[in-house]
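Sample entry (148 residues):
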Amino acid sequence: ASVFDPQFGSPVTLMGQFYYFLGLVYFFIINGHHSLLAAFAASFRIIPTGLQTLGELTLWKVMELFFWMFILSFQIALPLVVTLLLMDISLGLISKTVPQLQVFMVGLPLKIGVGMAVVIFILPLLGGVFENIFSRMITDMFNLMRTF
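Predicted structure, serialized as tokens:
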């Protein structure tokens, strides 16, 4: 199921919206908005207006940050992806061994239920992950500003 996101003008999944709002709420709980505004104000001291130059070190730091974001998103999604992959493999094996069973009719609700159970199981662990992400975000922001 998907809903329309007017901010981006495209449909997004319900679980994607759930993770987005969960991260946003946690960001406000740990006062990330205060840290972000302080970092924005400090950026004017670190990078004086009119002296912005992109060096090779800046581009390498940006590539490192994109790599780090990809790894973190992969780590967050990996338990659910692996669980659903194992569900597909097991349902495929059941379909081959018992052809009379309508696997699609049984498999879709089963995959939804197992997926939701995995999300509920992983949800308490995401607090530490989000805290790590947001604390590192401010540090990386200052490190990126120092490369200018």
